Amino acid sequence: MQKILLKLPHVILRKRLFGMTILSLTFFTMACKEEVQEEPFSLNEKYFSESTQLFLPDDLEATLWAESPEFFNPTNMDVDAQGRIWVTEALNYRMFRNDPNLFKHHEEGDRVMILEDKDGDGVAESSKVFVQDKDLTAPLGISVIGNKVIVSSGPSVIIYTDEDGDDKPDNKEVFLTGFGGFDHDHGLHAMVAGPDGKYYFNAGNAGPHIVTDKSGWTLRSGSLYNGGSPHMIDNEPGMVSDDGKVWVGGIAMSINPDGTGLKVLGHNFRNSYELALDSYGNMWQNDNDDDGNKGVRVSWLMEGGNMGYFNTDGSRKWQADRRPDQSIPMAHWHQDDPGVIPFGDNTGSGSPTGITFYESDLIGEKYQGTLLASEAGRNVILAYKPEPSGAGFTMNRHNLITSLKEEDVEDAKSRATDEDKTKWFRPSDVLVGTDGAIYVADWYDGMVGGHRMIDSTGYGRIYRITPKGKNLPKPTIDLSTTQGQIAALINPAVNIRNSGFALLAKQGDNAVDEVKEVLKDKNPYHQARAIWLLSNMGTKGVQAVEDQLEADNPNLRLTAFRALRQVKTSILPYADKLSTDPSAAVRREVAVALRDMPMNEVKDILIELASQHKGEDRFYVEALGLAMDGKEEEIYTVLSQELGAEPLDWNAGFEDLTWRLHPKQAINGLKDRAISQQLTDAQRKKAVTALGFINDQGAVNAMQEIAASEIAGVKDQALWWLRYRRNNDWNEFAIDIPELKANISPEIQKEMLAFKGTLESKNSSKADKISAAKAMAKDKTGGFMLLGLAENEALSEELIKEISPVIFQNPEQAIRVLAGDYFTNPTESSAMALSDVSAIEGDAAKGKQVFMGKCATCHQVGEEGRNLGPNLSMIGAKLDQNGLLDAITNPSAGVAFGYEMWLITLKDGTVASGFLQADGPIVVLEGLQNEVYNIQASDIASRKRFATSIMPKPSGLELTETDISNLTSYLVGLNSEVN
């Protein structure tokens, strides 16, 4: 027996020994440590509050706490130790889209306001300006931490310090700078103090974000995204940060209060408006989709997780990666790709904004542990009681506070008319006060999104939500005593806790006994805060945290492990201990903590963790994937020995691991599974997908064999993968499949290349040049070549004059439109007066005829039209009549991301034009006839992204004022699924 045991691998040996000696004790321990199932969360019946015009549960009540002119256009809030509410204003919001002559704004910069209810009657009667600064342009975040006021206003995080308590800044420090997204919704968002004392925050995908912390460490995050603002600097995918990793698009980060230790915690978002942490250290966020795709999400963020908006390096949009059978939300967030975290709750359409986590029981015990998420597009505050599910969470959505009837909330309206003020409730933030009340900031506008406003006055308001019939007084917070500091630590307001945390941590051993008393609190979130704090209070405190690794509550064990990670140089003893924890969430945390650790130190723990994966837990397998990042090939050898079997006999857990890791050594096994008739369609498809993520000639060869098989479905899948991967990750491998017809070559464009040569030759006569130029101006390819030459200032004034009368007759509409940037249109008519159009009563039926005759060549409504420009099926829910008029008469004022026209000139002189789908070794353009150009980046001589929309002005479409009035009457009615 002893000899047999000696030959067993460490993990199995340990498991068998434990099984023989302490089996009954293990069962007892697991029974104690399993998560306790709570009653399902539900809201009371709703009632309509006449005074506030809001619907809310009948155990809560709402009051109007403050409104303009005490402040204007609120974007974000925080609360200080006195219970005062601080507000960032955005009156100077998108002045490039909102005429400052028509909209209220501040020439001296946006402001930070302080609001106070001094007499405790539930209404603020005091308002003052803390700071007004030209460096503040539509700031999107504020945190008040002690005497520091931290304002997020791209490109910088600015800290204003009030040294003497007179509510005026004495010092101003640019804490961090280099973020993209100046005056952009997809920019920099609020910082919040975490339960560990660090600051947490996020930024949207309007990069590039190139930010250096105070220790000299530099973050670089970018992507293809270049839309939404004339201030955008050219973004760039594939940038490498100082940690050697490629972070993509929107990012979540933490940093030490002294400005050192900048760390990326998650990436590849589109635009998460705010990051919220609970006291266990879980991170929560929401995220907007590309307009019209019903992919808005509210998510739990796994540390280090890729949330899947772009591909892994940010060089391809989701549309370029969409598989033939994928739904839009699944493709939008790359949910079927290994290495991407599940998106949580898909809320459909909307405009998500501020978010917070409610941990108190002051508004009712049932609300403790509730995630609150503002949804401005749906006029609602959403509520979730996240339920542990394996290594992740199940998130069931509830409409907590809304201006709409329950059945209307699902139908998001990003724009509403003056008559329908129920949809002007636009919650921009939600906050928990020191009193435990919920405060909701209302941007109040008929429109949200699109960088536009309807309300020209900047009106805004704040609601206060309390238990019905119960007063919630502001507590007095005395930070001069230990008990006062503990009271601050357990306060409902997030950033107030930091003041108590910092002062208690400074006391060290002297306050450990008092803080340990908080571990006995009935509120588990208070216990978690004590755990974080104790880990920062010296040896005695750390010992108390180590004891919590044995806590019955898995959330406290998880918290203790997270806290110890931050203060101990070696966590392997803790990781080893918890690798057999009955909670998948605890084991998940062990897994993500092992990322970047040497293989020889963590191999046994990884195998132990992997051995407990039984399949069907996407969160857990993604945590294992993060743990094994960079170790895939080496660890897979051991995994195969310990957990594997013959390919057709893989269990669900090992199949899942192979899909997630997709190592080269699994190629033959995956191929065998893909072509096996013994397996299900889903199992074969999973094998084909895993092969598609292996960048090796062997995977290409295996995929070609599968494509040559006769198994229904699998053959077509393999052929799709071969054609798709040829244009990106497999472009350097040998692929033998039927070629698609070439769509760009010198042979096809040889006539226009010859004319171009005439223009560029010093030996050509003036007459020959003019003749060649006019011939090019009449041709689609030649027209784009002329645009490229004009962009490079390679055409003389005389040639420009000769070309101008001809190029505006080009058969390609895009050329006629873009030519206006370089040539003079002799037939250009004067701009239409919007007042003339508005004065005409429109006919929607005739407007549909205008759409079908003039617009359907590029736009779709329902199943009618072409999918070239933005889909207009729900445009009436986004733009009102004036917004539509502006978009039609001034189409270049705001070109939607993804619809910018690109012109690429190759080294051989040929040209390609279209919409950029991917930018890497192979550049992919979608042309104006939906053709696809796959271009080797090394063959490109120049590229041009046009700021001008290719949508013609009304004169270019020969539209009259009556036509436009009819058209807008039709489009404005496209505001629901039914319409």
User: Which value, in Å, is the CA radius of gyration?
Assistant: 30 Å
Query: Which regions have little confidence, pLDDT < 50, spanning 5+ residues?
Result: 1-29
Write down how many β-strands occur, each being a DSSP E stretch of 2 or more residues. 39
| Sheet with the most strands, sense and barrel status | 5 strands, mixed
Strand order of the largest sheet: 12-13-17-18-22
Number of alpha- plus pi-helical segments: 30
- Average pLDDT for all residues: 90
Tell me the span between the first and last alpha carbons.
76 Å
Give the fraction of residues assigned to helices: 25-40%
Computed structural class = alpha+beta
User: In percent, how much strand structure appears in the residues?
Assistant: 15-25%
Overall shape: globular
Entry keywords:
30 helices, 5-stranded mixed beta sheet, 979 residues, 20% strand, globular, 5-stranded antiparallel beta sheet, alpha+beta, disordered N terminus
Task: Please explain how this structure is put together.
The chain is α+β, with helices and mostly antiparallel strands and 979 residues long. The protein is built from 30 helices and 39 strands. The strands form 11 sheets. A 5-stranded mixed sheet has the order 12-13-17-18-22. A 5-stranded antiparallel sheet has the order 38-37-36-35-39. Strands 3-32-31-30 form a 4-stranded antiparallel sheet, with no helix packed on it. A hairpin with a 4-residue loop joins strand 35 and strand 36. Helix 18 runs parallel beside helix 20, helix 22 packs antiparallel against helix 23 and helix 22 packs parallel to helix 24.
